[in-house]
Amino acid sequence: MKLSSYWWDIDEDLTTPMPEHMPHEVDLLVVGAGFTGLSAGLTAARQGRSVAIIDSGRPGFGASTRNGGICSGHIRIPHAVLSQRYGKDYADNVYGEGIEARADLVKFCDDEKIDCQITKAGHFNGALSQKDYDKMGHQCDALNAIPGHDVELIPRDRVHDEIKTDRFYGGLLRREIGGFHPGKFFAGLLRVVAASGAEIISRTIVEAIEDDNSSDNKDAKLVRTSRGTIRARQVIVATNGYTGTKQPFGKFLRQRVVPIQSCIIVTEKLGKKRVKELMPGMRMYGNTAKLSCYFRPVPDEDRILLGARSFDRLEPSGRSVAFLKNKLVDMLPELAHHNIDYCWLGNVAFNQRQLPAMFKEDGVYYAAGYAGSGTVWARWLGKKTAELAMGMSNQTSVFYDKPPQKIPLYDGDPWFMPFVNGYFAVQDKVNEWGYRLK
Ligand SMILES: Cc1cc2nc3c(=O)[nH]c(=O)nc-3n(C[C@H](O)[C@H](O)[C@H](O)COP(=O)(O)OP(=O)(O)OC[C@H]3O[C@@H](n4cnc5c(N)ncnc54)[C@H](O)[C@@H]3O)c2cc1C
């Protein structure tokens, strides 16, 4: 079994040449070269601005080439709850922006000729109890009332048309959602950004961002890096779930955004016929567990990928592999004797509101906290943040707001996550026993 991302095994190039010299001064400096950072840099460079995008490691080797490749633009908070908390208009705008952002991703791949096997395959969420299924009826109506959604409630006797499991009491099918190959998308994005004139500087750590008092521009900053200082007219921080804990840089963000480890397994080759028998809908899939998992056929349709929260922080252990494989076999018992070929970990990022966040603090722009749905949101909010920072548009995003709240007793080390995961795991077990006894 390889302990590395399945998405890295491609013919396309995921590396970038280092520029010969570090720039001294730029219009826009972006910290972090994942989907958010590259998208921000591209937007500004295409307007003729000088741009440096700096990453402490290899571009994309944060979350952007480790994810499940489900392109949902999902919002964790149900529409009804969002309406109750912030008003119906706000909830409609949030869900509406999801539709716009997803369509924009598809258009971007098309316009830039990025062949990343993007499909509108649909997303099927399986209900693990009758209660969960009943709730889905309301969700279905609420989503269909917002233009751009195409949602259907699938009763129990039709679940096998979607996936060959007896574990679901029915499910919610969202036809407007799809998936892609994150590695191929990232390789295409790198190519487009490099051609735009933006400089991508890898293996360079941003250590501190300080005010540039010699400039009349109140947002101007001196960005201290492990390879020298760069003067920047504007700065965007796009480090999301990989904001380190070791430098003075990032403190504001790491007190507000919690990195949560997610682990993915990919089966050995099962063959297209077998995958299609097990997942006739060939969709993106999820379930209603508290510790929910996401699963899908890989874009080549010959293996199955499954991801869920992880027990490990740095490298996947045997315990994580066994936990994920159990989840897979619990749904599809026929996979019990098949091997797992890949397993890897990555950080997803949450803030207290569990909504994507875009904000400005002390002259610096931020986009972060996509709650596990950044394949759509990260690229979109990277673009929106750059448009705002460069004064290109007044029309930003419904997510542009005050910074997320600081999380009490927290400074970047999510020590409480094992307890949270344990609590959810117990709730899932109790629910499961409850329904089995009925
Ligand atoms: C296992 C997993 C599964 C997921 N599945 C899905 C999915 O199916 N669908 C979906 O929509 N989303 C999914 N996501 C979430 C999605 O991948 C992320 O939201 C998205 O990639 C975030 O992109 P980003 O550019 O903001 O951050 P990242 O890609 O994490 O990039 C941040 C970058 O900042 C750099 N950095 C950090 N500190 C510094 C510093 N001091 N100096 C310089 N550089 C620095 C890091 O090296 C990193 O490259 C998943 C994530 C994971 C981990």
Task: Explain the layout of strands and helices.
Layout (H helix, E strand, L loop, with lengths): L24 E7 L3 H11 L5 E4 L15 E2 L7 H8 L1 H24 L11 E4 L3 H15 L6 E5 L3 H4 L7 E5 L3 E2 L2 H15 L2 E3 L4 E6 L9 E5 L2 E10 L13 H4 L3 E10 L4 H7 L5 E4 L6 E4 L6 E6 L8 H14 L8 E11 L6 E5 L2 E5 L5 H16 L27 H21 L1
Parallel strand pairs: 1-2, 1-11, 2-8, 4-13, 11-18
Antiparallel strand pairs: 3-7, 4-6, 5-6, 9-10, 10-11, 12-15, 12-16, 13-14, 14-15, 17-18
Helix pairs in contact: 1-6, 1-10, 2-3, 3-10
Describe the structure.
The chain is built from eleven helices and 18 strands. The radius of gyration is 21 Å and the shape is globular. The mean pLDDT is 94. Helix 1 (35-45) runs parallel beside helix 6 (182-196) and helix 3 (88-111) crosses helix 10 (374-389). Helices cover 32% and strands 22% of the residues. It has 438 residues and is α/β, with parallel strands linked by helices. The protein folds into two domains: 12-119 and 179-257 and 351-407, 3-Layer(bba) Sandwich (FAD/NAD(P)-binding domain), CATH 3.50.50.60; 123-176 and 258-350 and 412-438, 2-Layer Sandwich (D-Amino Acid Oxidase, Chain A, domain 2). It has helices at 35-45, 79-86, 88-111, 130-144, 159-162, 182-196, 251-254, 272-278, 318-331, 374-389, 417-437, and strands at residues 25-31, 51-54, 70-71, 123-126, 151-155, 170-174, 178-179, 199-201, 206-211, 221-225, 228-237, 258-267, 284-287, 294-297, 304-309, 340-350, 357-361, 364-368. The structure holds flavin-adenine dinucleotide.
